[in-house]
Write a structure and sequence with these properties.
The protein has two domains: 4-169, no CATH class; 187-377, von Willebrand factor, type A domain (Rossmann fold, 3-Layer(aba) Sandwich). The chain contains six helices and 23 strands. The chain has helices at residues 187-199, 210-221, 242-260, 292-299, 314-322, 354-363; strands at residues 4-5, 11-12, 31-36, 41-47, 54-58, 74-75, 88-89, 92-93, 102-103, 105-106, 110-113, 116-124, 126-130, 136-140, 146-152, 163-169, 205-206, 228-236, 265-273, 282-289, 332-340, 367-372, 376-377. The chain is elongated.
C-alpha cells in the first residue's frame, strides 16, 4: 500500500478582465492538480473549453487598472510537458534557448486526463517571474500559493485575441488511498536523505514498506564496538505516513526489546515532525528513556494527519532530535534514525537550515541514518 498526496484544488477568486464574447471563464470543477513527488512538483490540468485555445500561468493580478505588469511564471529548466510549447508576445515568438524562459503555458490539450480533454502544465516547486532589469524573484509553490490562470482565445498566449484572468489559491491535503502501485520514491526526498546519510558515512536505506524497515532498524541498532546507546527516532507524522506509522506501532517495540537487550545501557527517544501551519511543527513525543513500553506508548500517543503539500519540516525534525540531552561519554553510540517519505522544503521556511543540522550532528557526534518510504502521486 502506497502513500498518496491528495490535492483539493483550488478556490477561485474571480474573473477580472472582460472577455468580449468568448467564454474564457473557469470554475473549480475545471481544475485538477496532481502532486508528483517523483518529479518534485505539480501536474495542473485545466479543462479544455470550446473558446479557450491556450493557458498561461501568471502572478495573480495586483492592479485591476492594469497600470502595473503581472508577470508570467516560468520554470528554470526544460521539461518534456511544456518545454517545447510556443509563446507569442508582442507579435513575436519568444526565444527560450538558454534563457530560462520556459513559461508555464499550454496550447496542446491532452485527451486522457482526470478531466477528459484538458490543458496540462507542469509546475515545479520553485517557479520564477520577471527579469533582472525589472521586478523579479522566485515563488515556492506550497499550500496557499496564489496563481492566475490566464485563458486565451488564441493559441500560444497571443494577446491579439481575447483573454481572461482566473485567479485561484492552491489548497492541498494528503490522504492515503487503497490502491496498489509499484513503489515510487520522491526523487527530491531521496537526494536530501542521501546527502544526510553520506555526510554520516552511510547510505540511504530504501524501504518499500514498513515490514522491510524493521530488519533495517535492527541492523542499525546492532552493537558494534560500544555497548552503550543513545538513539532518537525522528519520524514524519503527516497524513501520507499513516499506514507506515500504524505498522511501526505494531512491530517496533518487540524489535527494540530484542535488539537493545544486547547493550549494557540504552536510551531511546522519539521526535515527530510535520510542517508549518500544521497542529505542530516538531514534537518530542518522549525524551530519552530506557523504558521501551514508555517509548511504545509515545509512538501511539499522537494523531497522524496534515502535511498538505508534500515537502515537510525534515530539517526542523532533525534539529529537534539533536536538541535532546545526549550522553557525551566516549563509550556511547549516538544514532538518529530518520524515517519519512517526503523532502524538506526547497527553501527554508524558518531559521533551521540543512547546514545547521549537519553542523550540529557533527558537533554532537551523532550519526544520522535516513530511511525513505514510497510516496506516490495522486489527485
Amino acid at each position: 500500500m502506497k502513500k498518496k498526496a491528495v490535492f483539493t484544488v483550488i478556490a477561485l477568486i474571480g474573473c477580472l478582465f472582460p472577455f468580449f464574447g468568448a467564454n474564457l471563464e473557469l470554475d473549480q470543477s475545471d481544475l485538477a492538480v496532481i502532486q508528483d513527488p517523483k518529479g518534485a512538483g505539480y501536474h495542473f490540468y485545466i479543462r479544455k473549453k470550446p473558446d479557450i485555445a491556450s493557458i498561461l500561468i501568471t502572478e495573480t493580478t495586483k492592479d485591476p487598472q492594469k497600470r502595473l505588469d503581472n508577470f508570467a511564471y516560468r520554470d528554470s529548466q526544460y521539461n518534456s510537458i511544456n518545454g517545447d510549447e510556443k509563446r507569442i508576445l508582442n507579435g513575436k515568438e519568444l526565444d527560450t534557448r538558454g534563457k530560462q524562459l520556459y513559461s508555464l503555458i499550454d496550447s496542446s490539450p491532452e485527451q486522457n486526463t482526470p478531466l477528459g480533454e484538458a490543458f496540462h502544465i507542469w509546475v515545479p516547486y520553485l517557479i520564477y517571474y520577471g527579469y533582472e532589469w525589472d521586478r523579479h524573484g522566485e515563488v515556492q509553490v506550497l499550500d496557499g500559493t496564489f496563481f492566475n490562470i490566464r485563458a486565451f482565445e488564441k493559441p500560444y498566449a497571443d494577446y491579439t485575441g481575447s483573454f481572461s484572468d482566473n485567479p485561484f489559491v492552491l489548497r492541498v491535503t494528503q490522504k492515503s488511498i487503497k490502491e496498489v502501485h509499484e513503489a515510487a520514491f520522491s526523487e527530491s526526498a531521496a537526494a536530501s536523505f542521501s546527502e544526510l546519510a553520506r555526510l554520516s558515512g552511510n547510505k540511504l536505506i530504501y524501504s518499500k514498506n514498513v515490514d522491510s524497515i524493521i530488519p533495517s532498524i535492527e541492523v542499525i541498532l546492532t552493537p558494534k564496538k560500544r555497548k552503550n546507546l543513545d538513539v532518537v527516532f525522528v519520524i514524519d507524522a503527516t497524513e501520507s505516513m499513516k499506514d507506515d506509522i500504524q505498522k511501526l506501532r505494531e512491530l517496533l517495540a518487540a524489535s527494540l526489546k530484542k535488539t537493545l537487550s544486547q547493550y549494557q545501557s540504552y536510551r531511546i527517544g522519539l521526535v515527530l515532525y510535520k510542517d508549518y501551519y500544521d497542529d505542530f511543527l516538531t514534537k518530542t513525543a518522549t525524551d530519552f528513556t530506557s523504558d521501551i513500553d514508555r517509548f511504545s506508548a509515545a509512538l501511539k500517543s499522537f494523531s497522524v494527519f496534515g502535511g498538505r503539500d508534500i515537502p515537510e519540516a525534515v530539517y526542523e525534525g532533525i534539529d529537534a532530535g539533536l536538541d535532546l540531552e545526549w550522553r557525551t561519554g566516549a563509550d556511547i553510540e549516538r544514532k538518529l534514525i530518520l524515517i519519512g517519505d517526503a523532502p524538506p522544503h526547497s527553501r527554508p521556511q524558518g531559521s533551521v537550515t540543512k547546514d545547521a543540522v549537519i553542523h550540529a550532528a557533527k558537533e554532537k557526534n551523532v550519526t544520522v541514518f535516513p530511511i525513505i518510504l514510497p510516496h506516490n502521486k495522486t489527485y
